[in-house]
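Journal club prep — side note

Before the paper discussion, L.F. wants everyone to see what a predicted structure for a comparable chain looks like in token form. Sequence:
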Amino acid sequence: MLRRTLLVGFVRSNPRQREFACSYVISSQNRSPHSTSDTGTNFRRQSDFDCPGLIIALILSGKKVHFPNGAVSKSNFGLQYVFWPGPLPYRQSLEAQKHFGTLSTSQADCDLAQLQVGDEVEKEGGKCGEEQRMYSGADSDHDELGNSTTSDFPEGNDALVIQRLLKINPTRKDRVRALNQCGITICMDLVLQVLARHKNDWKIAMFFFVWATQQPGYSNGTETYNALLTILGKAQQFKTMWQLVKEMHNQGDSPSLVTDETFTILIRRYAAAHMVERAIETFDKREEFGLKLNAPAFQILICALCRYKHVEEAEGLLNLRQNDFPMDMKSRNIILNGWCALGNLHGVKRFWNEMIKQGHRPDLITYNTYLYALTKKGKLNTALKLFDEMWNKGCIDVPTCNNIIDALCFKKRIPEARAIFGKMNEHGCLPNVATYNSLIKHVCNNRRMDKAYELLDEMERKGCAPNVRTYHYFLKVAKNPEEALKIFQRMMRSGCMPTCDTYNLLLRMFIYWNDLERVLRLWDDLEKKGMGPDQRSYTVMIHGLYDKGNFEEAYKYYNEMTEKGLLVEPRTKILVEAMEIKAKERKVGIHDVKINTK
């Protein structure tokens, strides 16, 4: 039976911690559904707080909390709390609120523990004193995974407070009440921060946007509208997007809020959804909203089509509308790059030859695109001939060298790659982070970690700061959790902040190593930092847990993913159907989980 966890108090009486007492949910310890002993407990995800039965009360400084017989004192992650497995009457919740603050969870749906606040703690000592020192900032502000402690949350971090309120209040009515009572002043910067924290949950983002719009003294601007359009576009909520665009345009006496960026978002999301005709129709509607049908906007259209593999349609459109939008070299390079990204070398050569026949002179971008197409298809000797020609003419730049270095490394011709690397300065091409990444990637793949770390050290000595991709190459070849953590810690120390892709990579690795405690801590940290989880995060968790035979948890992540409106990949749907079949065959009791494979 799944359980509900209520946060009824925060662990200390520090002002900053009191600020989060009603909004910050801490990863807590639940009794395992398959365990009958107190030792058989495991950490559960914050989303498990939406299920009925278990109560946890965190102990405030200077107070003692008394539970009825059966309560068990627990301690983990430096937090002391009371674990009580049974439901108790709701009638004394008001007394608990006097001492612990207003509860942020829907009280109508839950039983609350019968709490009584006892005498003041006579002295600070023993375990309680140690915990107070722990939370006073004496220890490190980050744990081994880089997860921030409460000191990472500065006072006045209203976006984080709102994120927690939206998360722990399950119904619309509860959310409205919590937001209305939080006392936070709404401004455009705050709205943008909250939307950024919910970029993968369009329903919550839309709810907050509407609520903010209704607040006295606040009105949305182009930036907030466009931010919400981006979120809706990822979820393919096109009808709602157009409603917002019309709202942006119809501002009464005020000027329209619709900009070029607004239509760029619409066109790119239609292209990403492979709705080519709708993307073109959207471009043609620009004039209805006071925008011009000009060449830059047309190039955005064909670029979006090429980016999502509709190169043939983009080239046809370019030829069809060349009277309205004359083909310049930038437009041609967009099409050439589209064929290159598609891996269609025949299309690249055909389009290249057509440009030459029409008397158009390729520029450096054109040459680099053609060079990349050759290396991508394994035509390294042909690419080297072209590179030598460009080198002798002095028609090269850093991307040119990076391209050929990467291709040589892929073919394990490392000495030749290092020779070009050493000669780059002759043409004024200083190696950049992409140059080093090309070398590091292939050295890591060949498990020559001593050479890889030499390159990393060289980067730092020469002032070329490693980026996220640099550290990803090291993480991908880590042999065990300890090695991965060392790399992650070095990444954090260097000032290179992890992205959602970093967390997704670590999630996949720790699931593979069966280190589920760190998996859950990574997941909570990902949510806390407002970077995710995104579609890929859920996909990693679902497939990883399935591979480990944990079907129930995989189901839960799948349902959470669909509830947020995230798009599910076909392979994940197939996996879910397979889990359902296996559950029936093995008679696994997944009775409380509703499957949605539509």
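L.F.'s comment for the group: The radius of gyration is 28 Å. Keep this in mind when we get to the figures.
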